[in-house]
Amino acid sequence: MKKTTKAVTAIAAVCAAMGVGLYAFISNNSKEEPSSVIEESITEAPTEAVTEEEYTDILPKNWAQMYSYSASDSGITDKSKEWLRRNKDYIGWLKIDNTYVDYPVMMDPGEIEPGDPIYGPDGHVPNSFYLDHSWDMSYFRDGAIYMDCKDTFDGSDRDQSENLVIYGHNMANGTMFGSVRRYRQDYDFFYDSPFVELSNLYKNYGYVIFAFLITPGSYNATDFVYWNMEELDTKEEFDSYVQHCRAHQMLDTGVDVQYGDQLLTLSTCYADYDNSRFIIVARRLREGEVYGDLSTIQCTKEYLKEHPNGIEDPRLKEKDEEDKDKEETAE
Q1: Of 10, 188, 263, 269, which is the most buried if we count CB atoms within 10 A?
Q2: Does the global pTM surpass 0.85?
Q3: Any idea what DSSP says for residue 130?
């Protein structure tokens, strides 16, 4: 749907593309990578699954600072009401199982003039405030998880942006979006965590990941400016976005995507030297599909030709073959 968006200057658009690049960092510990469509150009420390105790330890001490909010409470969930009192920019919650991603999502406020009574003395271009501010608006080197200021994610599904873009730093300790590197370090991780949960102020939405890829993160390096492709109003625009993701995907997930699906793009840094990004792209679940159950996910026709039973975890097939070999050997 066409929506009124805030004007974004050239420098602001570059900042949007950089979304997570100013303070993200990558360790130099080596790790053998699986073969991929896009060859890894750097090595990183592996990211392990996190525990609830570890997650609690990384929260900023002052995250619960209170802020007033004057909008109507009609239809807003109790959780959202609570968070809106803490920060008026709260827009929802993002969660991915087996990762650190279990965070509130802030809506970037857009351009901020110096001396703003809420955001402080410094001015900010669009999509830059939460690069180094926590969800309580205090300075925090790791930043926060935040949605592009051009996006629309309100209570009406039909008025929401066709492609929601959310940014987070690629932290070496796995926090923010650091732990999503597991998808490209070990492709089997997709089968462990193929779903994404995203809520807005009103309800929860389930998504299934259909592609993840490495892509340039600046205008002068690509014509795939995903950070400025939220409103995919026409079939041509939508198909172009999906086809680019398909062409550069690191794994054929088999997930079907069609014009009319709602998309979600998670963006984080890949490498600073070439300003590249790692993005994960998911689509909202369709009627009949069940969050947590890959067997209910509709597949592409091409995938079904090779996998008539739908999306299959290759590890299960390997185990079945090993068990069959053991039985034959025993006989």
Answers
A1: 269
A2: no
A3: G
End-to-end CA distance of the chain: 63
Domains of the chain, with CATH numbers? 10-39+69-296 (2.40.260.10), 299-331 (no CATH)
For each of the chain's 331 residues, which pLDDT tens digit applies? 644 433 333 333 434 344 444 333 333 233 333 222 223 333 344 444 444 344 344 444 443 444 444 344 458 999 999 999 999 999 999 999 999 999 999 999 999 999 999 999 999 999 999 999 999 999 999 999 999 999 999 878 889 999 999 999 999 999 999 999 999 999 999 999 999 999 999 999 999 999 999 998 888 888 899 999 999 999 999 999 999 999 999 999 999 999 999 999 999 999 877 889 999 999 999 999 999 999 999 999 999 999 999 998 988 876 655 555 555 565 5
Cα–Cα separations (whole angstroms), residue 9 to 133, 208, 228: 22, 33, 12
* Burial 219-256, CB ≥16 within 10 A → b, else e: eeeeebbbbebbbbeeeeebeebbebbbebbbbbbbbb
What's the count of helices (H) and strands (E) in the chain, helices before strands?
8, 8
Q: Which residues contact 152 (CB under 8 A, 6 or more apart)?
A: 1, 3, 159, 160, 161, 230
Q: Which two tokens stand for residue 69?
A: 């909010």
Distance (Å, whole) CA 296 – CA 288? 7
CB burial class (10 A; 0-12, 13-18, 19+) of residue 161?
buried
Nearest alpha carbon to residue 264 among 170, 320, 198, 216:
198
As a whole number of Å, the CA-based R_g of the chain is: 20
d(CA 128, CA 312): 40
Distances from the Cα of 181 to the Cαs of 155, 172, 233, in angstroms?
Answer: 31, 10, 30
